[in-house]
Amino acid sequence: MVEGLSLMFLLVSLLFVSRVTSRNFTIENKCDYTVWPGVSTASTVPLSTTGFELKKGEARVINAPTSWNGRFWGRSLCSTSSTGNFSCATGDCGSGKIECSGGAAPPTTLAEFSLNGPNGQDIYDVSLVDGYNLPLVVVPQRPQSGQTCITIGCVVNLTETCPSELQVMGNSSEEEPIACMNACQKFKTAEFCCTGEYSTRQKCPPSLYAKNFKNECPLAYSYVYDDATNTFTCSSSPNYVITFCPPITSNTTNNNRSSAADPPFPAQPSKETNGGTKRQRVIGMTKTLKQL
C-alpha cells in the first residue's frame, strides 16, 4: 500500500513539474496554401523540431521548456529539386532540408520569444525588421488583464503596399511580389541600418519605409529601434498560438493593386519622417487584433 501511494505521489509530482516547466506553441496554417514553419533556438535547449510542413488548415503543437528563447517563421513556395535539395522562395533557411539548421533568409516575418525572462515574464514580439513574407499573429492563451499581454502581429498582405524598390518578385509570368524587403536589406546604408554614426535611437528615427510597415501593422516591430512600443510581456506563463494568414487576412496576393492604397514613396531612398500616418487605419487594425 505504501509503495502504491509512493508511486502515485511520484506520478503526480512529475505531472506537476511538467506543467510548470514546459509550454506549448500551437502553429496554425490558415493560408490557402502550404506553409513550412521554421524554428531557430537561441537558448541551450532546442525544440523537438526545427522545421516541418503545414498544409492548409493544419495545426501542430510544439512543446518548449519554460525558459526557451527563439524564433518562428513561415516558409512559402517551397519545393524539392531532382537532386533532393529542399528550398523555399521566401523564408529559406539554407539547410537543403525541411528541418532547418539556422535562421531564415530575409525578408521574413518573425515571431520572437524569450520565455521566463526578467521577473518571470515572457517577452515576445512580431518583427518586420527582417522584412515581410507572410501575415502572422501571436495569441497568448489565458492572458492576464492588462495592456502588455495581448494578441499582436501583422494581419495584412504587405506585398500589396510594398514600394516597388523593396519588392521581391515571384517567378510566375505575372511577376507578382512574394515578399517585401526592409530598407536596410535593400540599400545597405548606415542610415537605414542604424549603424555607424546612426547607431543610436536619437540619430536613427524611422524612415518612410519603416513608417509604412508601422502604419499597416501597428502591433509589429517595424525597425531596429521600434522596441519601445512593440515588445510585449506576459507574466501568467501562457501557451501561445501562432497563426499564419489569420481569417481576417486576404490569403492570396491581390493581382490588382489599387494605386489609392499605395503609400507616397519617393523614387530614391529617403529618411523623410513627416509623411501621412493613416491614423484611422491604424486604430481600426489595432481594434481588430484585440478582437482575435
UniProtKB/TrEMBL annotation:
<feature type="disulfide bond">
    <location>
        <begin position="78"/>
        <end position="88"/>
    </location>
</feature>
<protein>
    <recommendedName>
        <fullName>Thaumatin family protein</fullName>
    </recommendedName>
</protein>
<dbReference type="InterPro" id="IPR037176">
    <property type="entry name" value="Osmotin/thaumatin-like_sf"/>
</dbReference>
<dbReference type="InterPro" id="IPR001938">
    <property type="entry name" value="Thaumatin"/>
</dbReference>
<feature type="disulfide bond">
    <location>
        <begin position="31"/>
        <end position="245"/>
    </location>
</feature>
<keyword id="KW-1015">Disulfide bond</keyword>
<feature type="region of interest" description="Disordered">
    <location>
        <begin position="255"/>
        <end position="280"/>
    </location>
</feature>
<feature type="disulfide bond">
    <location>
        <begin position="93"/>
        <end position="100"/>
    </location>
</feature>
<dbReference type="InterPro" id="IPR017949">
    <property type="entry name" value="Thaumatin_CS"/>
</dbReference>
<feature type="signal peptide">
    <location>
        <begin position="1"/>
        <end position="22"/>
    </location>
</feature>
<feature type="disulfide bond">
    <location>
        <begin position="149"/>
        <end position="234"/>
    </location>
</feature>
<feature type="disulfide bond">
    <location>
        <begin position="194"/>
        <end position="204"/>
    </location>
</feature>
<dbReference type="Pfam" id="PF00314">
    <property type="entry name" value="Thaumatin"/>
</dbReference>
<feature type="disulfide bond">
    <location>
        <begin position="184"/>
        <end position="193"/>
    </location>
</feature>
<feature type="disulfide bond">
    <location>
        <begin position="154"/>
        <end position="217"/>
    </location>
</feature>
<feature type="disulfide bond">
    <location>
        <begin position="162"/>
        <end position="180"/>
    </location>
</feature>
<keyword id="KW-0732">Signal</keyword>
